[in-house]
Structure formats: structure tokens, C-alpha cells
Amino acid sequence: MQLVRLAKPLYFFFRLARNPSELDRVFQINDSGDARFTRAVYDRLAENPEARAAFATRPRLGAFTMPEVLAMPEGSLGREYGLFMQRHGLTPDAIPRVEDDEGPGYIRAHLYETHDLWHVLTGFPPDPEGEAGLQAVYAAQLPGILNGALVAALLLNAAIERSSRKTKERFDAVARGWDLGTRAKLLFGYRWRDSFERPLADVRRELGIDASLAQPRPLRNVLDFSVSS
Predict the structure, then answer these.
(1) pLDDT digits (tens, 9 = 90+) for 19-54
(2) Quick check: 117 pLDDT over 50?
(3) What is the pLDDT of residue 40?
(4) In sequence order, which residues have a C-beta less than 8 Å from that of residue 221 and are 6 or more positions away?
(5) What is d(CA 204, CA 210) in angstroms, rounded to the nearest whole number?
(6) N-term to C-term CA, the chain
(7) What single-letter DSSP state applies at residue 95?
(8) By C-alpha distance, which of 166, 87, 160 is closest to 126?
(9) Are 176 and 218 in contact (CB under 8 A)?
(10) pTM, whole model, 2 decimals?
(11) What does pLDDT average to over the chain?
(12) For 228, phi and psi rounded to 5 degrees?
């Protein structure tokens, strides 16, 4: 039975490892996992006073339009979020709509709808290296094994491609993301919508985000190997 429960998550894990541009596999791995994992994450998070307060009030992002966020003040969190979506061909309709409840369901709903806001806030781009860095932020702040599994899939992809450069870039991103996540205040449960019109720099300062850690560091002694079939 355990093997059957793991079959779907493993399928999406290897799909992500084969093609890390299919970042929707991140959500599919989570969706196909055992509900007991989410319950365990909820139980551990509930030990944190800030997370406990979020479970009590369940702040959500709510509905918004692209014109609405793009009209917000220059440099604000909301406008930068709108520009991020515009650059990457995203729309509010593409945000997963998940119903929450008073228990573990809120974790999934809140993290799904705010995922791209975590990208904007931390500065990690939505590419394989940036996703590895952001998953390390999640891993530093949240209990559970999912984020480690996603990082492992992105590292496995670099190994499959026999790319020393990609391997080093992703390890570097993971190290920087872990550093950023351990230094920052808890981002889970933050009232993002209430801060849409505030300067992004102020929100980062409030939450202890050092966005310079999202910038790649120079790599040395990089050599890619390829083996022809």
C-alpha cells in the first residue's frame, strides 16, 4: 500500500527531474501526496505562535485583476507582483484556487496562491535555479519533506544532463535560499494583500528579507561532461 501511495508523487518527481521547466509538477507532487504529510506539517507549524495565529484568522490573497495591481504605486509589492506576472505570462486566473478549512487545508491554499509572491519578495526568479533557491527558503521555514524532494528533483536533473555548471548553480541557489530563509521572519500566514500598496523594500525590511542572497555568485572550476549515445 505504501508503494501505491508513493507511485504518483514519484511519477511527478521524475517528470520534474526530466524537465525542470515544467514547474507545475511542484504542485502536482504535493497534490498527489499522502494527506498525512500535510497533517504532520500542520501539527508542527501549529507549535509556532505566528503560524497558530494564521490558522485562526486564515488570511487569503483574494480576487484581483492585472490592471488593479499594475496601477499600484511604483515600487510597491502589488505593482512588482503584477510586473512579475506580466513578464512571465501569468494572470490571476492561473493562480490555483484551493478551498481552505480550519485545518491542514489552509496550508495548501495559502502556499499555492502566494507562491509567486514569495518569488517577488525573495528575488529568486521562476527558473530551475531560482526555484531551487526558493524551495530552500520554504525548507528553512516550514516542516516537512516536500521541499527537500523538490530540490532533489532539480539537482537530479542537473545530474541527468551531466552538467557540472547546473549542479553548482543549483547547489549555490539552495545554499543562498537556506541562508535567506533562516534569517527571515516566518512568511507563512503573512497578510500579503494588506501590504500590496506598501513599498516592496519596506515589506522586505519588515520580514528580514535580504534579497541580495537571490543573486547568483561567480562559479569557478566549472566543466560540463557529455556522453554521446
Answers:
(1) 766 555 555 555 555 556 677 788 888 899 999 999
(2) yes
(3) 76
(4) none
(5) 7
(6) 38
(7) S
(8) 87
(9) no
(10) 0.84
(11) 85
(12) -80, 145
| Structural contact between residues 139 and 90, judged by C-beta atoms closer than 8 angstroms | no
- Report yes or no: 52 and 46 within 8 Å, Cβ to Cβ: yes
Please state, in angstroms and rounded to a whole number, the distance separating the CA atoms of residues 9 and 145: 12
CA-nearest of 184, 186, 195 to 62 is 195
Question: Which amino acid, residue 156?
Answer: L
Give long-range contacts, CB 8 A cutoff, 24+ apart: 218-225. Answer: 219/165, 219/168, 219/169, 219/172, 222/164, 222/165, 222/168, 223/164, 224/162, 224/163, 224/164, 224/165, 225/162, 225/164
Q: Which of the four pLDDT bands, split at 50, 70 and 90, describes residue 102? A: low
Select from 142, 140, 124 the least CA-distant residue to 132.
124
Q: Residue 210 has which C-alpha cell?
A: 535580504
C-alpha cell at 215: 543573486
Closest CA to 204 of 190, 216, 218, 215: 190
Query: Residue 225: its pLDDT value, please?
Result: 54
Amino acid code (one letter) for 118:
W
